[in-house]
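User: We ran a pulldown and think these components assemble together. Before we commit to crystallization trials, I'd like a predicted model of the whole complex to look at. Sequences follow.
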Amino acid sequence: MKLDKGTGRQGDKEKGRQGKSNAVSLSPGLLVSVPLAFLLLFYFYPIASILTLSFAPEGRFSLAALGKLIRTPYYLQTLWFTTWQAALSTLLTVGLALPGAYVFARYDFPGKSLVRALTTVPFVLPTIVVALAFTAFLGPRGLLNLALMDLLGLDRPVLDLQHTLTIILLAHVFYNYTLVLRIVGTYWANLDPRLEEAARMLGADRWRVFREVTLPLLSPAIGAAALLVFIFCFTSFGVILVLGGPRFATLEVEIYRQTIQYLNLPLAAALSVVQILFTFALMAVYTRLQARLARPLELRPRRVTQRRPRHWREWLAVGVNVGLMLALLVTPLAALVERSLTLSATGGVSLAFYRQLFYNPRGSAFYVPPVAAVRNSVGFALATVGLSVTLGLMAASVLDSRGSARSPRPRGLRLRRLLDPIFMLPLGTSAVTLGLGYIVALDEPPLNLRTSPLLVVLAHTLVALPFVVRSVLPALRSIHPNLREAAALLGGSPWRVWREVDLPIVARAMLVGAVFAFTVSMGEFGATSLIARPERPTMPIAIYRFLGRPGAVNYGQALAMSTLLMLVCTLGFLAIERFRVGEVGEF
Amino acid sequence: MLEFSEICKSYPDGWTLAGVSFTVEKGEIVCLLGPSGCGKTTLLRLVAGLETPDGGRMLVDGEDVTYVPPHLRGFGLMFQEFALFPHKDVLGNVAFGLRMQGLSRELVATRVAEALELVDLVGFEHRDVNQLSGGERQRVALARSLAPQPRLLMLDEPLGALDRALRERLMDELPRILRQAGVTAITVTHDQEEAFALADRVVLMRAGRVVQVGTPEEVYRRPASAWSAHFLGLTNLVDACVVGPGQVETALGVLQVWDVGCGMRDAGSAAKLLIRPEAARLGDAGPNVLHGTVTERSFRGGHYRLGVRHASGVELAFNVPASANLPASGETIVLSLDPQALALLPVVGEAD
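Assistant: Here's a predicted model for the assembly, 939 residues in total across the polymer chains.
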């Protein structure tokens, strides 16, 4: 055969042979088709069904539903509220987290890794747990109010924060503080301090250094973090539903209400379309910002950029920020645990609310004891882990372009570049929209899964998939091709190379991905609230149901179950922190 | 004139800079030379004001600047890997210091053009600094620190980040540019060749102390101690005893030393004899004839590196011109040592 490297069939054959002779993995085409088919069926098909329902409810194209939306002031107000509360939350979060990011980036202090781990806990907590933690902390019978009443000798709550914008904003800050801290802090930590020193030496005072050097260099990281926070707040559901009460509704909450309370699916679909348009546009901007993060900077190892605080002012900066983090992030959770252990009547410590979870007070066969929800959640979560890790591994090994791209194949590369954001799409899609899509699309032939418990697993897998891919991919990419080649030259067969080189490196990342999937599934509320069968509730659903019923006992059980869920998710998070290597699982 | 007296700094990990003093005359280029970890970069950061000393004083023309913050000192610093602002182009980088001085737009433009001309980068104003080669980056950094006309320019390992060919070229170019700009400068390096090429005066440092100050020639010809000699790559040190004016007795025999320091020593006093590697000449036509065996012969381009074992067991290393006809390894050799290439070093005060 001629060694003709030109284009045409000859060249293609040549490459085909090469590919086969040192094939380390399965054929990419086959590998990618399984997760792609999954996305197609359980992501794009439901989304398409929503589009159909809102644009062509009777088979003909019509803008009636969307037009009605735009003409109704109430929905425009909802969109407006969704937007400005997200903007305000973002502003607040970035403003509070930026000093924290600075302290984490530039100083090394005792207990830093512990504080860092603690600040990350909120990120894995289910929204319903966070919402409940805030009522336990700031609500009318919350810890803060009880303490104030005790202190001032009053018999009425001092602060009425329930169903106010303040408590919503605080919960959003609680949720997203970590995101800014991580994204900006990591970037800042690797930013060469000599750039700032160079500006100082050229005559700039501290403020000018910050304005002219630090801030412009940080701007892509701040932008990316702010955008992500904005997206999360824009699609905020559980927090608004529980903390906002009837007064506040984001698009997400409105979709839920239209679906569950008014059974107006076409209107819900039209709202979803607006939601999808907004989030996709934002995600597109985010992806572009992410690419700009790769600006050619000489990143420095952290040991060079960080040091102990020396001056008392530096210690003060560290202290104030760490204090803020602990007050903001730990107090609500502590309040949740404390309240769940306290009978408000007597004030003593008691496990009564926990015991109640196991009772079936009416002895009714139709009544599902709350503890069954725990069983359901764990079952769903395990199934989600199995499915999402399998699919994620397949997707990640196709996305890992370097392993097989020794001979540049432009077409293959372009396809991969396209695939990467596609697998990330579910991350930017609101869960309620997804749930609505499932209701609309998967309740009729050819795919009727409406009554199947599989539906919940599928939705959870879709939400968990980006986390798994993002956990496994960096590990796969960290395997330098030379490593595999070295193993091959030392006599390893492709299978041996995969087992002895790839697997040990990827195994930990897979574990991280699995735990991510588990915690995501345990806490998923938005999609589940629409698709879970009444007889098979998950823990977040059970908590929400308790909240819907009157009385201290129901509220107490909600607290108790939230505490349990928090513990499970925190344990999961600790496992992630324990097993993660390097940048694995960073977004 | 800059005067640094008794500068002290200690760190929690036990490392200290212990009472460093030296002066820099106007227009002079002084090089801080020493192995890594000797404190030269720390000293530079103290001078820059990026760190505060625990004690000591820094005077510039009599004005105490010890506690003046860096942006008000009027000093320039060129960082080791240049620290160019990646979000600004060449113009933005060079103009930065001038803008901080609050100069008018026109004046900034003129001074930037001057600075770029000085470093031979005319026409590079709007180039992205991330796209420049190592040598170009180095020159942008130089232009940036020269443009505000600092009272003192500091250069941290100015040639360390460059490849060999470029280094060779800039070793000639850098002192020319600095002299042309008429700037007073302190450079820091661990490379003696670089130090000798750049500096009017060398400050040799070791473990947070100054061990020797002098012109490059002085430091090379008469290192202050055996450690200094070793650091400068001078490894031929032999125990010696002064027997008469310009004469010492060593394991190699009685040798003539034409060293100013030698005459001042009393007969019978002990010393270390330094034999510089270029001291050896082939053949016995000279005063200090040496018989030995070749242990090693390696070709280094311009010269051979020759290992010689004397009958007494002393091992010596010499650089011999590449044109010489040398015996092979294992054969005997006869050499004479140039009395001018020998020096006596003190034995006292040796910590090593």
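Chain A touches chain B through 22 residues (CB under 8 Å). That may be worth checking against your pulldown data before setting up trials.

User: Thanks, that helps.
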